[in-house]
Design goal:
By secondary structure, this protein is an alpha/beta fold. It is built from seven helices and six strands, in the order H-H-E-H-E-H-E-H-E-H-E-E-H. The chain has a single domain (29-182), classed as MoaB/Mog-like domain (Molybdenum Cofactor Biosythetic Enzyme, Chain A, 3-Layer(aba) Sandwich), CATH 3.40.980. Helix content is 47%, strand content 17%. Strands 2-1-3-6-5-4 form a six-stranded mixed beta sheet, with helices on both faces.
Length: 185
């Protein structure tokens, strides 16, 4: 004779939340930093960095930290360290330096600083990029993870790649990711 679920099983099922519920529990506004990695871009020519900032602000997020650094491991590490040391910054998004040329060092620096990797970010970014640009998507080493309870996500320097990453991955999940990092337990 089947007696049905126990009280403990019913309570456990009620305690489980869906990802939609978790996403809804994230903060309405996330505080972000945007770092452009480029040997040639300036404040006037940094269209990818401005695109990321505008997309974040259009969704109600705050961006008090922005900078442009050369594709130099020391400069990238210093900028990331400053952003991650600021307790107000919850997410840092970089653009540029994720390719495979000798000069592309963003990935290498970020991976060395990450405490908890989010491998799904790079995998998903390459997949959605593949749907848009084909096999050239393999040329990016986009990655993400956490450093000092700050989420770091890297995007290529291309404006189209930044738009893809922001629209398809970052903006839909940014609050959910921050909720998870802030969650205790």
């Amino acid at each position: 004779m089947n007696e049905g679920p126990t009280r403990e099983e019913i309570t456990a099922a009620a305690d489980k939340k869906t990802y939609e519920e978790h996403r809804a529990e994230g903060p309405d506004a996330v505080t972000c930093g945007v770092i452009t990695v480029s040997d040639t871009r300036t404040g006037e020519t940094d269209t990818s960095g401005k695109l990321i900032v505008n997309m974040l602000e259009d969704c109600g997020h705050k961006v008090p930290f922005t900078c442009i650094v050369k594709d130099d491991a020391g400069q990238i590490r210093e900028a990331l360290g400053a952003a991650c040391a600021d307790p107000a910054i919850q997410v840092v998004i970089t653009n540029g330096g994720t390719g495979i040329t000798r000069r592309d060092t963003t990935y290498d620096v970020v991976v060395s600083m990450i405490e908890k990797e989010m491998p799904g970010f790079g995998e998903l970014f390459r997949y959605v990029s593949y749907l848009e640009i084909g096999t050239a998507a393999i040329l990016t080493r986009a990655t993400a993870g956490t450093c000092s309870d700050t989420i770091i996500m890297t995007l290529p320097g291309s404006g189209n790649a930044c738009r893809t990453g922001m629209e398809k991955i970052i903006l839909p999940e940014i609050s959910h990711m921050v909720r998870e990092v802030l969650k205790k337990g």
